Amino acid sequence: MDLNEFDYNLPASNIAQHPVVPRDACRLMIVDRKNQTITHKSFMNLGDFLNRGDLLVANNSRVVPSRIEGQTLESGNKFEILLLKRLSGGLWESLIKPGRKFKKGSKFSLSRGDFLLEFRVIEELGNGSKIVHIDNEEHLTSIATIALPPYIKNISTHDSDYQTIFAKSDGSIAAPTAGLHFTQKLLLSLKKKGIDRTNITLHVGWDSFRPIRSNNIDKHIMHSENYSISKDTLAKLYSIKKDKKRIVAVGTTTTRVLEHLGQYNDGRLINIERIGVGTGKTNLFIRPGHDFKIVDVMITNFHLPKSTLLLLVSAFANKELILYAYNEAVKEGYRFYSFGDAMLII
Question: For residues 331 and 302, what is the distance between their CA atoms, to the nearest angstrom?
Fold first, then answer.
């Protein structure tokens, strides 16, 4: 399958630079897979398209500070490090900009106040990241900041704007952005309608937004991201499927966890005893052709062209319908990406 089939034209003016206030005042496009139609509403109207007995499943991962930027003590060169994953003993998988200046064996320092951070590039990985050893890593929490996506140029954005109301478990380097549209008022209205809610946790890592480098989609490899799920959540999922009601996934990260669990199910029912409870890893790459076993309805944002996220929503609906919806969204002035508007696929 050719990656170029999942491209579309997006003017820069459609890229949202800040969230709307209140959050649920953003626009909502409803994509109806059965009738092949789209409808334009507001996110605060979400409950009009959900049914009593539906189960809303959100990702409660919280974004942690992971960006370090400054000038090297040795040469004064500017640099930026994105901490992707702590390995052990001061070792971190990281992205460094500019990458060409920091090769294997490179050493550089950053002075902040009364302490010194020393960095040494241990290994360059094939996926573009590097393994970096950091001395005095206990100071990282005092200087690292939340890493906003590079297409957000609004420097006045507050860190709280990039956390969902579900955020509880520290570990993501990027927000599970479909959850950014929810407010407590909206959740209360959904509860009154008889829509239940539960959480899973998937810590969003680089693989959730890492570019696909090959035009042949099947050559792209997703690396593992950590997830956790409680016994109570598994019981709710099991009950919903048994009663033939709908599971509504809030976002692509939630979808990946649920569909990962679906790989181990018995028919369309999650077998709690076989899956177990606790933590795990998933490298599930959902693209057209995936057989969805758990997710019935999806809430998502408008994603980058040629991205794994666009492939996922194209698998859930179909490529033609999704690209038609995206082109209509551009024409109608929808706001795209992390702080943008939302899509409900039913």
Answer: 14
pLDDT at 181 over 70: yes
User: CA-CA distances (angstroms) from residue 42 to 21, 25, 189?
Assistant: 13, 6, 15
State the average pLDDT over residues 261-274. 62
For 67-143, which CATH superfamily applies? Answer: QueA-like (2.40.10.240)
> Which pLDDT score is estimated for 267?
45
For the whole model, what pTM was predicted? 0.93
Q: Is the pLDDT of residue 275 over 70?
A: no
Amino acid at 47: G
Domains 3-63+156-345 and 67-143 share a fold: no
How distant, in Å, are the alpha carbons of 8, 111, 200, 285, 307 from that of 301?
A: 15, 39, 19, 18, 13
Q: Hey, where are the domains in the chain?
A: 3-63+156-345, 67-143
- Class of domain 3-63+156-345 (CATH, top level): alpha beta
E-strand ranges in the chain read 27-32, 37-42, 55-59, 61-63, 67-71, 78-88, 91-97, 107-112, 115-124, 130-135, 169-172, 196-202, 225-229, 247-250, 278-282, 297-301, 342-345
